[in-house]
Design a protein that fits this description.
By secondary structure, this protein is mainly β. Helices cover about 10% and strands about 40% of the residues. It is built from two helices and nine strands, in the order E-E-E-H-E-E-E-H-E-E-E. The strands form two sheets. Strands 3-9-7-5-6 form a five-stranded mixed sheet. The protein starts with 8 loop residues before the first strand and ends with a strand.
């Protein structure tokens, strides 16, 4: 038998991957997720932290899967059309201590 490692996961927001368009208020109140498209096993992933970058502002590190007060403060400086980057996403497999080695970033385009 040959055992392979779990493939890289993708960052998601509201079940969407890559670039997501939504209002600023929705970003502030929804959790960041992670998933594996077309993976043969149904693994439940839990985001434990990430960084968020608003154009013209410093990146903010967040613990957990939802924005904290510092991240929301930076988000308030975003304008319509800005691309918010969510990167360095840390995720674990639910029910184990296994932390995924890599989770791809997700970009949010602000619509209002």
């Amino acid at each position: 038998f040959r055992v392979k490692d779990i493939p890289p996961a993708q960052g998601s927001f509201r079940g969407q991957y890559d670039v997501v368009k939504l209002p600023k208020a929705a970003l502030a109140s929804s959790p960041v997720g992670a998933g594996m498209q077309d993976f043969m096993f149904d693994l439940k992933l839990q985001v434990t932290g990430f960084k968020i970058k608003v154009p013209g502002e410093f990146a903010v590190e967040v613990k957990g899967s939802t924005l904290d007060a510092a991240a929301i403060k930076e988000l308030n400086n975003a304008n319509k059309g800005d691309n918010i980057s969510i990167f360095d996403i840390k995720a674990t497999v639910v029910g184990s201590n296994y932390e995924l080695k890599k989770v791809s970033a997700v970009s949010i385009e602000i619509t209002n």
